Amino acid sequence: MVKTKRSKMNKAHITPCHACDLLKDPIRRGARLLYLSKHFGAFVVDEPLFRPHIDRKDGGHLAILPRRHMVDRSEFTREEAEEFILLSMAVGGAMYKALPSRRIKLAIINYQQNGNWSVDRHGGPHLHLHLYGRARDSKHQKHGEALYFPPKGDRFYNVFKPFNKNDESALKRALFSIMLDKKYALLKKRNLP
User: Is the pTM value of this prediction over 0.85?
Assistant: First the structure.
């Protein structure tokens, strides 16, 4: 295996990043988990993970993070890559399935791997995939327009509410229902109790 600059940078990562710290024991730390395996966690975006970039009524915000620190998906093992793509499909499917019953008029999901706010941090960003729901009647992030992201910590984000507990329950039910399909057998097998 060829050592890349990124993999050397990961080994140089001395201080654990916020995500690495959370992912050591996400349940104890209060993360709102939809899925957890030895490789990945899928979360409702809320503290202590980070604040939502999209209000629940505007479509909501979920995230998928690997449990080991990596900067880019090119660092995935084959096993991780398979699980990551299936998990993103299943979690997106759960949003499409659950949110209409929660009176959220989901039109589309934006799947985004950003990492811009931590790109200059020692060790680089912790790879993560955002799933941004885009509702037809959204107020803050307008339907049909590109998402708008002011700087990290801007007051713009203060009004955004995460998915509530009932939304979270509906998303979990939808995700587990989707994982019954044989296409998602790998996820069902790897999801920790």
Answer: yes
